[in-house]
UniProtKB/TrEMBL annotation:
Organism annotation: Equus asinus
Any GO MF annotation of the entry: metal ion binding
Domain of life per record: Eukaryota
Compartment(s) of residence: Mitochondrion matrix
GO process terms (BP): antiviral innate immune response; cellular response to dsRNA; cellular response to interferon-alpha; cellular response to type II interferon; mitochondrial mRNA catabolic process; mRNA processing; nuclear-transcribed mRNA catabolic process, deadenylation-dependent decay; positive regulation of viral genome replication
Protein name (Swiss-Prot/TrEMBL): 2',5'-phosphodiesterase 12
Gene Ontology CC, one term: mitochondrial matrix
Compositional bias ranges of the Basic residues kind: 89-99
Cofactor: Mg(2+)
Gene field: PDE12
This protein's UniProt keywords: Exonuclease, Hydrolase, Magnesium, Metal-binding, Mitochondrion, mRNA processing, Nuclease, Phosphoprotein, Transit peptide
Gene3D superfamilies listed in its UniProt record: Endonuclease/exonuclease/phosphatase
């Protein structure tokens, strides 16, 4: 077990100390009195504790015991296991000695050799150099720093050391795109953990200077692997890595000590990237995180895998897109690189598969300082990420539109208007659209709070009146949060609103009202007409204006996505230019091998007034 003198020592210095410790530990492993490691996991919420250690015969034991069990029973079981292991080792040794040697004879035990002992080894647990009584309960007996003795072998007990509970590399790795391992820790955190990346040595490649790579573990210095020189959580392969596998060596830490290291190798080879992507030029404007006065905001429909991987998508919606470029493993590389390259403070995403959120977006964006929340719709949902160094999450106020409309008194007046049109009411209440609302607080100035809303309105071209109703519910709910619950806080409302600037929905948001004779009330014909006037009190503006399009597919292009901001409290500092028309149409339309979605991300820098 290693301890740091301070809570947050410089990790590079720590790494050197850990490497020295590891080399010293390896060098003395066979020496007299070398201390092995016994890892105990014991948490109050679980009835059992686990005990892991390696016996002298090389076998690894992982025991699950009741926390309320007396220590003596565990020690007795360990003694039995050790005896069995000793017997197996002795039998194997005898078998080896009786094998014919190279000259055809039989190698026999020499004079003075003794048969294996038939009695159980002495097993004791010591704490502060005193034996722990056998009637002490496990939960109290197995303390950090205790010493377990099995025969002549001593084990230092480490109770609840930092440990990886999940560690996984992506299944598809491309040169020029960041590799973000998915990891979960117990009793630790990624920022205090150590990472080191290796790549396969090319056949016939010369050894690095200094006689080969140094390593945190003996296995990493095998001739098949060389160091990349990267000791961060994220590694971006270069073209020189194409055709090679990667290996990651991780040591979990918590700022006080380190836990057992783990290694994992990629199951795939590094492949060549697609060349220039639609977002590469945009990243030139977002090389650094903004200062505290600004809020870089992104809104992006990333195209759910559940929609991209259908026969209809491949043959009708996106027939121009190479099939491999519609596969999730490929698109995730592009999405991760695009989002991390914006260095955003707020990211609102639509069409997010639950597995994409947990397995891809969270690991990637967490490595770049962002934390996220997710709201499922049906097959996919919404995700909002915020920069942890700038914001903390105060509360969440997500709703389903149809549930809120039916049950929340806030929308009683709107529902009373809608029930006069049964056909329209039925259609509205069938929709599964949701609204994600998060209240964030500035870490630099606790008096500054902000209401961040994110939604994806009903998609059908003839659903204009449904989108109007959904937006009315959304704005009433956001008003409740930003005025009643947190009086006076500004609003940022992002989303795919499936509405061009000429629609009633956009008119309603920007102008604050919609007349009952607007044509969108009959968007699906006279049978579903539902004339009503609506109003809201917000003063909202589209921060990125009205681009020619934010969605570009073979049969349609138009502006459907917006970042609406509260003009009373926020102003636009900078809008990151969208890709050029030439870039968007390089491969005919979107998505493509160089763009992961049929939508284009909106990116802008906002400033507090």
């Amino acid at each position: 077990m290693w301890r740091l003198p301070g809570a947050r020592a410089a990790l590079r210095g720590v790494r050197t100390a850990v490497e020295r410790h590891s080399r010293a530990e390896a060098a003395t492993e066979t020496g007299t009195g070398a201390m092995e490691r016994a890892v105990v996991r014991c948490v109050p919420s679980e009835p059992k504790l686990s005990l892991s250690f390696a016996l002298a015969d090389g076998s690894h034991k992982n025991m699950q015991r009741d926390q309320s069990e007396p220590l003596g029973r565990v020690l007795s079981r360990i003694a039995t296991n050790a005896l069995k292991g000793h017997a197996k080792a002795a039998a194997a040794k005898k078998s080896r000695k009786n094998r014919p040697n190279a000259s055809g004879g039989v190698a026999c035990a020499g004079p003075g050799s003794e048969p294996a002992a038939a009695c159980e080894p002495v097993v004791k647990l010591y704490y502060r150099e005193e034996a722990v009584a056998e009637d002490v309960l496990n939960v109290d007996a197995w303390q950090d720093g205790a010493v377990l003795q099995i025969g002549d072998v001593k084990y230092k007990v480490e109770r609840n050391p930092p440990a990886f509970t999940e560690l996984q590399l992506p299944r598809y790795i491309m040169a020029g795109f960041p590799v973000c391992p998915k990891l979960s820790l117990e009793f630790g955190d990624p920022a205090s953990s150590l990472f080191r990346w290796y790549k396969e040595a090319k056949p016939g490649a010369a050894e690095p200077e200094g006689g080969g790579p140094s390593s945190l573990s003996p296995s990493s210095s095998s001739p098949g692997w060389t160091e990349t020189g990267v000791d961060e959580r994220v590694y971006t392969p270069s073209n020189a890595d194409i055709g090679l596998r990667l290996k990651l060596h991780c040591t979990p830490g918590n700022g006080q000590r380190f836990g057992p290291s783990r290694e994992l190798e990629s199951v795939c080879l590094v492949e060549a990237g697609p060349g220039t992507c639609t977002f590469d030029h945009r990243h030139l404007y977002t090389k650094k995180v903004t200062d505290d006065a600004l809020i870089r905001t992104v809104s992006y429909n990333i195209l759910a895998d559940t929609y991209a991987q259908t026969e209809f998508s491949r043959t009708v919606l996106y027939p121009y897109c190479a099939p491999y470029a519609l596969e999730l493993d490929y698109r995730q590389n592009l999405i991760q690189k695009e989002l991390t390259g914006y260095n955003a403070d707020l990211i609102c995403l639509q069409e997010v598969d639950r597995s994409v959120f947990t397995d891809s977006l969270v690991p990637a964006l967490e490595a770049f300082g962002l934390e996220g929340v997710f709201r499922i719709k049906q097959h996919e949902g919404l995700a909002t990420f915020y920069r942890k160094s700038k914001f903390s999450l105060l509360s969440q106020h997500d709703i389903s539109f149809h549930e809120a409309l039916e049950s929340d008194p806030l929308h009683k007046e709107l529902l009373e208007k809608l029930v006069l049109y049964p056909s329209a009411q039925e259609r509205v209440l069938q929709r599964s659209s949701v609204l994600q609302v998060s209240v964030l607080q500035s870490r630099q100035d606790s008096s500054k709070k902000i209401c961040v809303a994110n939604t994806h309105l009903y998609w059908h071209p003839k659903g204009g009146y449904i989108r109007l109703i959904q937006m009315a519910v959304a704005l009433a709910h956001i008003r409740h949060v930003s005025c009643d619950l947190y009086p006076g806080i500004p609003v940022i409302f992002c989303g795919d609103f499936n509405s061009t600037p000429s629609t009633g929905m956009y008119h309603f948001v920007i102008n604050g009202n919609i007349p009952e004779d607007h044509e969108d009330w009959a968007s699906n014909g006279e049978e579903e007409r539902c004339n009503m006037s609506l109003a809201h009190f917000f003063k909202l503006k589209s921060a990125c204006g009205e681009p020619a399009y934010t969605n570009y597919v073979g049969g349609f292009h138009g502006c459907l996505d917006y970042i609406f901001i509260d003009l009373n409290a926020l102003e636009v500092e900078q809008v990151i230019p969208l890709p050029s028309h030439e870039e968007v149409t390089t491969h005919q339309a979107l998505p493509s091998v160089s763009h992961p979605s049929d939508h284009i991300a909106l990116v802008c820098d906002l400033k507090w007034k």
